[in-house]
Design a protein that fits this description.
Elements (H helix, E strand, L loop, with lengths): L8 H5 L3 E6 L2 E8 L2 E10 L4 H13 L3 E12 L1 H16 L4 E4 L18
Helix pairs in contact: 2-3
């Protein structure tokens, strides 16, 4: 297991925070009143999809409602979108709530556009 390191102010303040890394992503989880907050930092792609899926499924298997914090995601390809669809399907299957949060960042690192239209 990767040593605990804070990845955001909310994760650093959590009494219990699990952190793992794969590829160019760091995933940490914290519990907040029965809700598992999964903080994702970096790139969600084929190199990190397995870690993200394992983390999300472990929290859903524990019966936690789930929030995916994507405020520090810098890139996501179609593999990342598949992770989100799978998370939603799995949450529905086990009757857990789930949501995600993000910021209005540029659509990609290539052009810097804040447009929803792909480059």
């Amino acid at each position: 297991m990767t040593p605990e390191v804070p990845v955001s102010p909310t994760a650093a303040a959590a009494p219990s925070c699990d952190v793992a890394a794969a590829g160019l992503v760091t995933v940490s989880t914290e519990a907040r009143d029965g809700v598992a907050v999964v903080h994702i930092r970096g790139e969600i792609d084929v190199a990190s999809a397995e870690l993200l899926n394992e983390t999300v499924n472990a929290r859903l298997d524990a019966g936690d409602d789930l929030v995916l914090d994507c405020t520090e995601v810098t890139f996501m390809d179609s593999t990342g979108i598949t992770c989100f669809i799978t998370a939603q399907d799995n949450a529905r299957a086990v009757v857990c709530g789930w949501s995600w949060q993000a910021t209005s960042a540029p659509c990609c690192g290539r052009c810097g556009s804040a447009s929803s239209t792909p480059c």
